[in-house]
């Protein structure tokens, strides 16, 4: 029964036989809402998102394409669900074992989060990269756990979840924690505290009293209506929904300005240093030079200087193909340097990120997969081809936010190499400078 408490799953997703229980409800795979057919799991009603195929039920049966990666929901499917009962064992005190100190603005945000958890509703925490968002949610989580509420911290990115997990385990050492993401080796277990990718929320229904979505503007959550639907479905109706991001979408910014969404803004980092402001460097037609197997002189010169100064660097490129071509050039030019490449489907992705964190590489080439949710102690950041449409305004702001995050190393360099200045490039630089000005005006930046 606990395995499906607050969940909505297919019979084949269960790890144990389903017991006969009057509290278990069966839900058809598709339901009619206001005359339209909807997938019961992801809410999709678009006919183009349904396909027909021969089925074990003996008929040609349509199924939902939108949430197919989480298992096939067919017209004949049955989802099993049970109401979340919040049956949790007593936890050993103290629940919160983190003993760090919050800055003034972190305390204000923490109090706002606590208040939202107490009364329910929605709140947006707009905090610059490196503001210390994770530490701000600790008090709210502690309060929820004490009140026997179930808590989930979700993110669109696996890397963010994997970064959060050890930090939550250290902060709540006596609290069992489930970490849910595609490809995980761990079987699902019922816990009061959960970290999950937003895709994993597809398997929950009215489960969480508190749902915190980190990096809410990240792909695919920011463009996927089904994921936004299931986030609302996974939260209890009277629960609290808290969004965290350094780069809210234009839609969310409008909602904040129009007072439709309550927000708390944090324009400064926890350590009191300003955000590193990007340096824009023109590098000519860099893609043409790569095709002609020629060096991008200004880029290679800066990287050599960085290596000579013993600086470790995170280098972003628009796509895998270009990244691999640049990597081959770097192998030839810097044969004694330790580096590698990483991308979303890289089977060694987790290990490479860990190795970079442990300073085993001089530099790491990456796609936008590492634009957010990862922290390296002391690095510079380079974007090659910052004009590419892959690098949106929010992506560039997030990328710049990888530098200078640690209190002992707050001044990493950020270099945007470009062929032509785009609106996104200009807006990203403006946003970073605007946050620095706002932090100065509020007296939050004490050091330069």
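Sequence proposed for the structure above (448 residues):
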């Amino acid at each position: 029964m606990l395995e499906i408490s607050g969940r909505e799953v297919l019979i084949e997703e269960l790890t144990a036989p389903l017991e006969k229980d009057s509290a278990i409800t069966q839900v058809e795979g598709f339901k009619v809402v206001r005359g339209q057919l909807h997938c019961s799991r992801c809410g999709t009603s678009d006919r183009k998102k349904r396909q027909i195929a021969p089925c074990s039920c003996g008929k040609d049966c349509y199924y939902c394409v939108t949430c197919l990666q989480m298992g096939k929901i067919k017209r004949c499917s049955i989802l099993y669900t049970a109401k979340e009962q919040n049956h949790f064992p007593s936890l050993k005190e103290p629940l919160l074992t983190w003993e760090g100190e919050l800055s003034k603005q972190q305390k204000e945000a923490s109090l706002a989060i606590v208040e939202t958890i107490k009364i329910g509703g929605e709140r947006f925490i707009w905090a610059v990269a490196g503001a210390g968002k994770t530490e701000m949610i600790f008090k709210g989580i502690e309060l929820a756990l004490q009140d026997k509420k179930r808590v989930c911290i979700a993110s669109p990115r696996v890397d963010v979840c994997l970064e959060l997990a050890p930090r939550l385990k250290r902060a709540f050492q006596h609290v069992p924690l489930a970490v849910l993401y595609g490809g995980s080796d761990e079987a699902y277990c019922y816990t009061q505290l959960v970290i999950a990718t937003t895709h994993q929320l597809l398997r929950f229904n009215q489960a969480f009293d508190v749902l915190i979505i980190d990096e809410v503007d990240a792909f695919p959550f920011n463009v996927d209506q089904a994921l936004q639907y299931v986030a609302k479905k996974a939260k209890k109706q009277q629960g609290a929904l808290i969004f965290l991001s350094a780069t809210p979408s234009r839609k969310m910014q409008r909602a904040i300005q129009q007072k439709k969404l309550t927000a708390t803004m944090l324009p400064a980092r926890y350590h009191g240093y300003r955000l590193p402001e990007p340096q824009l460097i023109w590098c000519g037609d860099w893609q043409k030079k790569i095709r002609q197997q020629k060096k991008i002189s200004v880029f290679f010169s800066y990287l050599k200087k960085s290596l000579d100064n013993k600086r470790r660097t995170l280098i972003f490129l628009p796509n895998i193909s270009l990244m691999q071509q640049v990597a081959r050039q770097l192998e030839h030019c810097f044969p004694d340097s330790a580096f590698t490449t990483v991308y979303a489907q890289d089977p060694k992705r987790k290990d490479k990120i860990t190795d970079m964190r442990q300073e085993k590489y001089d530099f790491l080439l990456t796609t936008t997969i590492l634009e957010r949710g990862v922290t390296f102690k002391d690095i510079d950041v380079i974007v090659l081809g910052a004009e590419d449409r892959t690098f949106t305004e929010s992506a560039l702001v997030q990328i710049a936010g990888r530098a200078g995050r640690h209190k002992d190393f707050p001044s990493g360099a950020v270099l945007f190499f470009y062929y032509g200045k785009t609106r996104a490039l200009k807006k990203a630089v403006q946003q970073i400078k605007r946050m620095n000005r706002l932090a100065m005006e509020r007296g939050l930046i004490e050091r330069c």
